[in-house]
Amino acid sequence: MSTADPLAFDREHLWHPYTSMTDPAPTRLVTGASGSRITIDGVGPVVDGMASWWSAIHGYRHPVLDDALRDQVENMAHVMFGGLTHRPAVELARRLVEVTPEGLDRVFLADSGSVSIEVAMKMALQYQRGAGRPGRTRFLTVRGGYHGDTFDCMSVCDPAGGMHSMWSDVLPQQVFGERPPREKSEVAAWAEGFRELAASQADQLAGLVVEPLLQGAGGMRPYPAECLRVFREVADEHGLVLVFDEIATGFGRTGTFFAAEAGGVSPDVLCVGKALTGGYLTLAATLCTPEVARGLSDSDSGVLMHGPTFMGNPLACAVASASIDLLVNCDWAAEVGRINSGLQALHDIDAADVRVLGAVGAVELDHPVDAAKATEAALAHGVWLRPFRNLIYTMPPYVCSDADVATICAGIAAAAEAG
User: Fold this and answer.
1) Number of H helices, E strands in the chain
2) Is residue 223 among the annotated active site residues?
3) Binding site membership: which residues?
């Protein structure tokens, strides 16, 4: 076999996310990346409106992050985390405890966002066992959510309109409340129904899992911060472990460092990923309170039953620490605010709905997007986008210039017209 024609080999042998292997969607060859741009073979440099699925917040080939990787690889690339530790993991844990909402000072370093959610769900289940409530095995969540593609994660994703509905007959059956409303004026009525649902199922529930402030892959749908306080109150009232999935929303994306801050609440468990390493390497973390850690230790196993081979990978930890330092030492809020101002141009697009929150912009069409046509139209305007369902959206790198953001908006407008 030869890879002289990489796209042909790719088409025959490589699976891509959410695509068929027998009738694969077109792929494009990326030959380089720098700053806010990726270079696509036959097209040239284009603004990456996706920030590599929302992770490359500092853009590509950032000298500080490059140096962090070089320095670490000269020491060691990896060592098992069972029975051993190392400074990159310790330093990353210290930074995470410092920047996350109050009370989250126990840190589990996972491989990916989905794994961090799996770990969070295990934490909640083991906490309830340790508390003498082994019958609490289900999770409360809301419709419209997305929490990853591994098995238990799929069970708390939207059961009907989500990507995993085909598995509904084999997944654990969770408890779904209505989507949080869009408007503050509707929060009280929604909260009443959510509280009633939680009360009716409380003796079965181990935890409450939600994406705070913004439902991401479930539809790029923001909701009022007041709902976060409802989640906290419901969890407290019924002894549930409150899990915030901030894999997409963390590290400034929605306008606060973590979306939880918008509601002035802290969860019992927090999951972070994606932007954690600035898009360089796969890494996630699940943080919890001392109370959850103690309760978990009181369970029959006495330990958290999870341990990935590449847990705490030194390369990933080193670049994650450098990424967090970059963020906290710059005026990230001003950068996100500047991008937000530029994305307001999306409201000029004729569409069913337009939503802008922090450095997130989404245009909802009244029909499914023709992804191929929409992608071609965006590329013709110098921007890479990845539409899905009836949405054309962007979560760009924070290093995007005003001109880059204008290019993204033009690309989205062209994609909306073509798709």
Assistant:
1) 14, 16
2) no
3) 53, 113-114, 146, 245, 274, 307-309, 386
